[in-house]
Amino acid sequence: MESPTWAAYALAWLATLALLLLSSHLRRRKLNLPPGPKPWPIIGNLNLIGSLPHRSIHALSQKYGPIMQLRFGSFPVVVGSSVDMAKAFLKTYDVTFASRPKTAAGKYTTYNYSDITWSPYGPYWRQARKMCLMELFSTKRLESYEYIRVEEMNALLKELYTLSGKPITLKDHLSTVSLNVISRMVLGKKYTDESEDSIVTPDEFKKMLDELFLLSGVLNIGDSIPWIDFLDLQGYIKRMKALSKKFDRFLEHVLDEHNAKRKGVKDFVAKDMVDVLLQLADDPNLEIKLERSGVKAFTQDLIAGGTESSAVTVEWAISELLRKPDIFKNATEELDRVIGRDRWVEEKDIPNLPYVEAIVKETMRMHPVAPMLVPRFSREDCQVAGYDIPKGTRVLVNIWTIGRDPALWDRPNEFCPERFIGKDIDVKGQDFELLPFGSGRRMCPGASLGLKVIQSSLANLLHGFSWKLPSNMKVEDLNMDEIFGLSTPKKFPLVAVVEPRLPLDAYSL
Predict the structure, then answer these.
(1) Domain residue extents for the chain
(2) Which family, according to UniProt (predicted)?
(3) Could you say which DSSP state residue 133 is in?
(4) Distance from CA of residue 406 to its chain's centroid?
(5) At CB < 8 A and 24+ separation, what contacts does 28-33 make?
(6) Across the chain, what does the average pLDDT equal?
(7) In this structure, what are the phi and psi dihedrals at residue 376, rounded to the nearest 5 degrees?
(8) What is the pLDDT of residue 487?
(9) What are the residue ranges of helices labelled H in 120-264?
(10) Pick the CATH number of 31-507 from 3.40.1190.10, 1.10.630.10, 3.55.40.10, 1.10.10.10
(11) How confident is the model at residue 304 (pLDDT cuts 50, 70, 90)?
(12) CA distance 301 to 114
């Protein structure tokens, strides 16, 4: 009997391959995927995403509905754009969607996914979350640092008083106070002070943080089309690696100083968050050892998260108020009535200032710092709203769209804090129409600190000063464009003029 020829083998191989492709095609056809635009070969729907992805995706969701499937290169992406979808992804199926996709930003800027934000769901992340809730952001620890927040706020108010009548770039001053507060709480001192032994200047450090936020939020083509990742077509990976080196040099210096301070001290008492992290790293009972790289990743996360969000939110709030003098008037009337004109606002006063709280909520509705939250990742196949979401799907929750839903908000494009007066809507992750810090297991662990800093900063800025635009600017000239990264700040920083509105002796802080 004649043995089979190579041609016969090849034919059998091709037939098997055809059957496999057909069966996989048939299996795929059975999936009931959410609606969405038809993807192009290779790039998927990336051609539909502009420089402000949350707005591009918002426009698509108006056409395809509150749950929509896109394709970014090789990866399926499902977007939820309604309260019901936010609740499904962040609460009902929270565990299923509790992981993070692997991205270049996570790999190169967070010590290979060692931080709180980008680490995948599992024992390491669960331990990190527990550290945040029990140690780093416990109510007791945050209260113990209140004096730092007060001192730095007083320094800002004093500085603004000296600049009365001159145009100031508000974001610069807000970033400085946020960075000083976070540096003292996390690192124990202002490492960015202009001194001979400072490892970075304040300006360099702010630029590093801006770059970190931009690179963590960019749409890096290689994350979507992995086989061209090595080409680094946009140059982002080169920038990530350079930034990582700068941060590592700084963080090594911080850890060395902290370890030297602890050396040989019996019963050492942790004074700042790095001390706490180093003590945890020494703990032999931890389920997963916290390595030095993990301490550095956590520290970087704490500094970046705490600095950017509060400065961005307060700048947006003041920008919106400059366009609405009546809202400014209502806020200052409340402050004068509740606080009086002979003292400054304290954190404990905030619950007695519902109008100021409403301004903060309205700012977070219209200008969420992370408009699509940080992406999630499905750990297993599941069904949401009757649609199949296969394992490995990336998930975005577009809170920017939810904040503009006319079914939820009357005149959604108008800045109107009154909408929150008398309404029991908070920003702590339980009211899905307003989720600036996210919700569920992956909610921002520093939300309570961020809220304290934002509310007290804004209240004191409104209480202490009258605000106006420079004399050569009209209200209609105020540009409200934004730029997109992991945070969404104003494209053109706000320049304003301040004048004291309290008795002059109030400023001798």
Answers:
(1) 31-507
(2) Belongs to the cytochrome P450 family.
(3) I
(4) 25
(5) 31/388, 31/390, 32/386, 32/387, 32/388, 33/69, 33/76, 33/387, 33/388
(6) 92
(7) -110, 180
(8) 85
(9) 123-131, 139-144, 146-162, 170-182, 202-217, 221-224, 236-262
(10) 1.10.630.10
(11) confident
(12) 10
